[in-house]
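Structure (tokenized):
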């Protein structure tokens, strides 16, 4: 159990709890299938712009998970979260990973597929 005054270890103390991105609006209305296609294109091409594939895979898994699981994923992968909404992260080697909001949440102006 530990001492009453002990605190859980958090590595270097720079651990940020992740949160959902703020609501956002896409420049034009898009359907769910268009959003899914945009996400697939991003994840397919993202590793080609730098960084390590295993970090991109961890970020994708975190982006598609609920917040508790996403936090566990980024923590176990050694991802350094710059912005709590996961839009900017770094790996332990200092490589930067930028995630667009459309891979993290749905826009407020999403329309139903016809």
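Design, position by position:
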């Amino acid at each position: 159990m530990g001492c009453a005054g002990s605190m859980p270890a958090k590595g270097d103390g720079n651990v940020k709890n992740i949160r959902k991105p703020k609501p956002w609006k896409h420049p034009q209305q898009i359907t769910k299938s268009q959003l899914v296609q945009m996400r697939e294109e991003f994840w397919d091409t993202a590793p080609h712009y730098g960084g390590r594939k295993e970090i991109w895979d961890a970020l994708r898994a975190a982006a598609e998970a609920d917040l508790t699981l996403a936090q566990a994923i980024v923590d176990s992968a050694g991802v350094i979260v710059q912005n709590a909404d996961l839009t900017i992260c770094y790996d332990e080697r200092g490589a930067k990973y930028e995630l667009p909001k459309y891979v993290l949440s749905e826009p407020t102006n999403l329309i139903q597929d016809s």
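Reviewer-requested clarification: The mean pLDDT is 88. The longest strand covers residues 88-90.
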